[in-house]
Amino acid sequence: MARTIEIEDMITVGTLAEKLMLPATRLIGELLKNGVMVTINERIDFDTAQIIVEELGLDVELAKKAQAEPAARVRKQGHSEKAVPRPPVVAVMGHVDHGKTSLLDAIRSAHVAKGEAGGITQHISAYQIIHNKRPITFLDTPGHEAFAAIREHGAHLTDIAIIVVAADDGIKPQTLEAIRFARKAGVKMVVALNKIDKEGADANRVKQQLSEHELLPEEWGGDTVIVEVSAKTKQGIDNLLDMILLVTDVEDFRAEVEGPARGLIIESHLEQGKGPTAHALIEEGTLKAGDFIVAGTTYAKIRTLVASDGSTLKQATPSTPVAITGFKALPEFGDEFNVVNNEKIARQQAEQNTALKQGTSSRSDMSSRELLRIINRSNQIQELNIIVRADVQGSLTSVIDSVKALDTEEVAVHIVSSGVGAITENDIHRAVTSNAIIYGFNVEAPTNIKRLASRDKVMIRLYKVIYELIDDVREGLGKLLSPEIVETETGRLVVKAIFKTTKTEVICGGEVTKGKLVVPAFARVVRDKEQLAEVEVTNLKRGPQDAKEVLEGEMCGVSLATATRLEIQEGDRIEFFTRQTHTRTL
């Protein structure tokens, strides 16, 4: 019976050898045999360790050791009697181009949609509005399929999800995805039936579609609130806001205002003159300027708190979206933040989280995918090296996830490096050494960087719409695909006579029984059902004259170039075909 050994997600070669009761030299030797250069102190991930154990043929089963939760993660607890009602956090979700951002425009009387590249929301944005003297916080989540990770993240931040469906278009794949995310997050859904004033709008058809997905409208005996709206004419907007407040009262959303704050990072980016800036949503407590907070692997002494309307705040309470400056480095979107007493504790917690992350990261040192690629040398994968730069952390994650999803068994994207902010000189140097293309999403390349790139022949491609960037990467991967060879049968000849046979040539004659014969061409010599050889047709003769083509029913002579001596007999078939290479695409 195989013995079970528990190991961490990442383990050094030396520690693994000790647990396997093997000399470290044997383990290193096995890795070297597979073309992997490692030392005794280098770390490999769990999957790599499993591969090596299999390669060694050991009667051992590896199991993952349970990981400790990072110190900065604080789980939600039940509210005490001190908890007070708080504003609802509402995510606006749905299919691309169904009018999510336009609906928010109507709600906020702003014009965000006009400024979005390609009319598509590229980030999570948070705003707070006042309706009937009560605040409501809105999250505008991206609609394009590439932003699924952000969209799911948005659903987990919220209390109520507004599912926007165009009345003239009906339910689409991203609508269903938004419904699934909302259900998974356990949030209340309100359907906004948008574009109700548009020609072709059919509210009943959409309601029927919703009921088919277990969202039965209230007027049909269900519990799904459906509000007919028009972002263009502002019809039904007040009714939608009233419904949000009604759901809020029924659900009774509460939070504790007193005590140190905690919440979630919903976006982060580098801002000129301010450095790392994070957009956060407060879940509990009161956040104040000057507080020390830990978010994932970084920390901050809060320099400024800025509200969604641009005003500077001294403090912020639950459900309030704020922009925070003062971070030492960019936090990642989705990181939970919490307030600590002083800078020393903040630094210690951030370092502890960094160590835990490094210990569980499968991207550091040798990954199992890289090892498998080396072991399976026969399956050569062509790689497209790219460097990715984006304006904010959430977009960077979405771009990387989207381009990695393009990987196939033949071609793959290799991310040489990635980061938030403008393209730098280091990116150019990396691109030169790795022969990589630099992709910038919503970022600029300064003039000196463009000049350097031109000098070093580095390609920089800048995009503001994510699906255009993905299409470009897909095209680049397509160019790495080996061309498809297409064979087309053109004609068939039955041999009636053999005139000459040498080591490298056969001259014979016969009747064309199918199609037409043309030169130049390839041919297969077939006897009964067995293929004797593949040859090249060098000449055709109709009587004494050379011919370029011979039609069905005609007699002709054929000259064949052979690799080895070929003894053709009467009655053999010669099947003519052409061979062309076609460029493939992903």
Structure summarized in a few sentences:
The protein is of the alpha+beta class and 586 residues long.
User: What Rg is obtained from the alpha carbons, in whole angstroms?
Assistant: 33 Å
Largest sheet: 6 strands, mixed
Number of domains: 5
Overall mean pLDDT score?
81
Q: What is the name of the CATH topology of the largest domain?
A: Rossmann fold
Query: What is the CATH superfamily label of the largest domain?
Result: P-loop containing nucleotide triphosphate hydrolases
Tell me, briefly, the overall form. Answer: extended
| Strands, total number | 33
Strand order of the largest sheet: 7-8-6-9-10-11
As a percent range, the share of strand residues is 35-45%
